[in-house]
Amino acid sequence: MGSGVLSLSELIVRPKLSLAAENLFLRKQLAFYEERRVRPQRLSDPVRLCLVLLSHMFDWHPVLKVVKPATFIGWHRNAFRLFWKWKSRPPGRPAVPAETRALIRRMASENPTWGQAQIAAELLLKIGIRLSPRTVAKYMPRRGTRPWKGIGSQSWRTFLQNHAKQIVACDFFTVVTASLKVLYVFIVMEHASRRMIHFNVTDHPTAGWTTQQFREALPTKHEYRFLIHDRDSIYSADLDEQIRSMGLAVIKIPARAPKANALCERLIGTIRRECLDLVIPFGEKHVRRILRDYVRHYSEGRPHSSLGPGIPDGVRLVPIRSDHSIAPGSIVRSRKVLAGLRHEYWLETIAA
Asked: pLDDT value at position 44?
C-alpha cells in the first residue's frame, strides 16, 4: 500500500509525455500476455485495494484487462464492507494485555489438567489479575490431541520425567557387514541413568529370541515398572504377555512417532556416529566385540550432557580449580577406546 502511494506521487510530478510513453509501454506488455493467452498471477489484497483507490481518479473501464468488471466492482464492495465493519465495531471492554494473554497460554500449557476456573483463580489470588473464567477460556490454547490412554491428561514429557527411574526402553537397528550381510542389534536402556543395560546381535530376530533378551536384561528382582517399545510386528502379543509376567507394563509408542521413544533413538544415533559409522565390521562376532567395548565406554567413561553432565555408572568427582590449572602433584592419564577411535582421561596422583 505504501509503495503504491509513493508511485502515485511520482506520477503526479512527471511530464505528460513520459506518462503517455509508460502507459503505451504497459499496454504493449499486456497485449503480449493476451496474445500468448498467459494467465496473470492472482492479485494480493494490497494490490486490489490500490487498484480500487486509483479507479476513482480516471475512467477505469477501458483499461481493465486482468479481471472482469464485475470482479473489480466486487473488490470495491468488499473494501467498503471491511471499512464499515471496522467503523461500526462496538467499543466493548479494553483488551486483555498481551503479556497477560501470554501468561494464560503458558499456564495452560504447563498445567494440562487445569481448566479455565483454576487458571482464573491462580491469576486472582497469586498474580492480582481479575478475569472471568470465560475470558480466560478465550485465550487458552486449543488442545487438539487426546491425552495418552492410561496416563491421564499429563503430557508425555511429564510422564517420562516423573517415572524415569522406573522406565526401560528398547529398540532394534541394523548393521551392514563387509560382506553386505544385514545384522540386527537389539538394545535395552534405562531412562534415568541413560545406561545401556543389555545388547545383543543376531541375523534373524524372532519374538522368542527377543523374549530371551528381556530375561537376560532384567534381573529377577528389579524396580522397573514400564517398558517402551514401538509397534514392530516382532513384539507379538505373547512377547508382551511374557513382559507383563516380569512385572512390567508395556507402553507402545504411537505409529510413525519415533520421538515418543526419543532417548532410545538418540542412543542408537550416538552408537552409529561414534562407533559403527567409523568401522567396517566383518561379521556378527566382530560387531559384538566392537559394541562390547563401546558399551563399557558409554556407561563408564563417556560424559552425558543430559546428566548434568555426568557418567551413567558414576565417576569419582575431583575438586574444580578456579585457576584452570591441573592439580599439583597430579598427572592426566588416557586410555584408547576402540583402537583409538575415542579416548578416556582421568587424573592420577603422582607417587611421591
From this structure: 73
Q: What pLDDT is stored for residue 57 in this prediction?
A: 66
Instruction: Say if domain 157-307 classifies as CATH 3.30.420.10.
Output: yes
8 A C-beta contact, residue 40 and residue 33: yes
Tell me the domain boundaries of the chain: 2-87, 98-139, 157-307
In this prediction, residues 77-104 reach a mean pLDDT of 81
Identify which has the larger pLDDT, 143 or 147.
143
Q: Which helix (H) or strand (E) holds 228?
A: strand 226-229
pLDDT computed for residue 126 by the predictor:
82
Question: What's the burial of 72, exposed, middle or buried (CB within 10 Å: 0-12/13-18/19+)?
Answer: middle
Give the pLDDT confidence score for residue 323 in this predicted structure: 63
Stretch 21-28: mean pLDDT = 59
- Look up residue 95 and give its three cell numbers: 483488551
Inter-residue contact 193 to 303 (CB < 8 Å): no
Q: Which residue has the higher pLDDT, 104 or 4?
A: 104
H-run or E-run covering 345: strand 342-349
Identify whether the C-beta of residue 112 lies closer than 8 Å to the C-beta of residue 143: yes
CA neighbor of 286 nearest in space, from 206, 268, 294, 197: 294
> Which of these, 342, 327, 235, 345, lies nearest to 293 by C-alpha position?
342
Work out the end-to-end distance of the chain between its first and last CA atoms, rounded to an integer number of angstroms.
82
| Amino acid symbol at 22 | E
Gap between the Cα atoms of 28 and 26, Å rounded: 5
The residues near 124 (Cβ < 8 Å, ≥ 6 apart) are 130, 131
**Residue 55: CB partners within 8 Å, gap ≥ 6?**
72, 76
Strands of 249-252's sheet, edge to edge? 196-202, 182-190, 167-176, 226-229, 249-252
The pLDDT value recorded for residue 231 is 93
